[in-house]
Write a structure and sequence with these properties.
By secondary structure, the protein is of the alpha/beta class. The chain has two domains: 263 residues, Alkaline Phosphatase, subunit A, CATH 3.40.720.10; 104 residues, Gyrase A, domain 2 (2-Layer Sandwich), CATH 3.30.1360.180. Helices cover 31% and strands 21% of the residues. The protein is built from 15 helices and 18 strands. A seven-stranded mixed β-sheet has the order 2-18-9-1-8-6-7. A four-stranded antiparallel β-sheet has the order 12-13-15-14. Helix 9 runs parallel beside helix 11 and helix 10 runs antiparallel to helix 11. The radius of gyration is 20 Å and the shape is globular. The two termini are 37 Å apart.
């Protein structure tokens, strides 16, 4: 299992480097050892491409001749858990989960007494907007956006379907937002910003389609391969178009992926005795599940996991993961502990775990992430000056 590197080898450190290169606040984490800020500080434009789900191992092993792979300078780690909700929040704040306290796709917010799909700003139980429960994005996402910590004008390029979402608006801060619908529009929007002659700027561009297709079809599927090739070709064309603009291009990912077959899914329907010990639905991810256990059931819970699930899951007290630095360094967010339950199940090998609420539509998910495997945790660092 790979523990995230927060001391100079992870995406949170990359954001420190970029903050320094943009004349901003370095924050609490050291810069990335593999990327000095000095070289970036001379660039006219700084472009961060975040390619959701593009793991280092996937890129290096499957597509070594691609334009992206040929320009990899290093591999760095994601955060814990290695999932979009936590890692994208890190790239949009420059803080680790230890401080931003967004800990997975499903999260229990004690202040709302609700389990939520955090990036969609809605309840898991019935899909209501969290605003209906009195939640305000600024209060729920109580961290400073990266774009408000830097001295340069900032722009965010993100899919049109999420550009004005509560999560995105809260995390973009004062950055200008630019939506797109197609791959061609993605690079066109970036190229237009680079061509704008109004001084230095920072551009954050997010592309989620590889991850979306991998969940549905698998990371090893032809669907993902076709999308990767299309992106790589478009990226190569974009490089030619951007030459001579004085742009520093940094490309990375929020996490990698593995494929998990149906027979490796542990469903709580098949473990009613375990489900009886839980006070809330499972939170977090299929690969990292936070368990809220009734106080009088903790011994029973521990015994059941040891007897029935030890082959597929590593059980830890959640507070011990904070103490060991899984979520980050330094003082934790005051609500971090209550957002990760009493226990955490980190799934081994290619196992996943899932419960289903009565109204949830059951669906397969082949490509998964959140865990601590090499494939999930390592992402590429690509740096180019054009």
């Amino acid at each position: 299992m790979v523990v995230p590197d927060y001391r100079g080898g992870g995406i949170v450190n990359l954001m420190t480097t970029l903050a320094l290169a943009c004349g901003g606040d370095a924050g609490a984490y050291p810069p990335l050892e593999a990327l000095p800020a000095e070289g970036l500080a001379r660039a006219r434009n700084l472009l961060l491409l975040v390619i959701d789900g593009l793991g280092y191992e996937y890129l290096a092993q499957r597509w070594p001749a691609s334009t992206l792979a040929r320009n990899v300078g290093a591999r760095i780690t994601s955060v814990f858990p290695s999932t979009t909700a936590s890692a994208i929040t890190t790239t949009m704040t420059g803080a680790a989960p230890q401080q931003h306290a967004l800990t997975g796709w499903h999260m229990y917010f004690r202040e709302l007494d609700a389990v939520a799909v955090v990036v969609q700003f809605r309840t898991r139980s019935d899909g209501r907007s969290l605003a209906a429960l009195g939640a305000q994005p600024a209060a729920l996402f109580d961290h400073t956006p990266f774009f408000d910590r830097i001295a340069l004008p900032a722009h965010v390029v993100s899919p049109q379907r999420i550009i004005d979402s509560e999560f995105n608006v809260a995390h973009c801060g004062g950055a200008r937002r630019h939506g797109y619908n197609t791959l061609a529009q993605f690079f066109e929007a970036i190229a237009a910003l680079i061509a704008d002659g109004e001084g230095r700027k920072f551009i954050y561009a997010y592309f989620p389609e590889l991850d979306t297709l991998a969940h549905r079809h698998g990371a090893a599927s032809p669907h993902v391969a076709d999308e990767f090739h299309a992106f790589d070709r478009a990226f190569a064309r974009f490089l030619e178009r951007a030459r001579g603009t004085g742009t520093a291009i940094i490309a990375t990912a929020d996490h990698g992926l593995i494929d998990s077959p149906r027979e490796r899914l542990i469903e709580l329907d098949d473990h009613p005795a375990l489900a009886e010990t839980l006070a809330l639905p499972l939170c977090g991810e299929r690969r990292v599940a936070y368990c809220y256990v009734h106080p009088h059931q903790r011994a029973r819970f521990e015994a059941y996991v040891a007897e029935r699930l030890s082959h597929c899951a590593m059980l830890s007290r959640s507070d011990s993961l904070i103490a060991q630095g899984y979520f980050g360094l330094g003082e934790p967010h005051p609500r971090l502990a209550e957002r990760i339950g009493n226990y955490t199940l980190v799934m081994k090998d290619d196992y996943t775990i899932k419960d289903w609420l009565p109204q949830e539509k059951r669906h397969a998910q082949i490509g998964v992430h959140g865990g601590m495997s090499t494939e999930e945790m390592y992402v590429p660092l690509i740096v180019m000056h054009v």
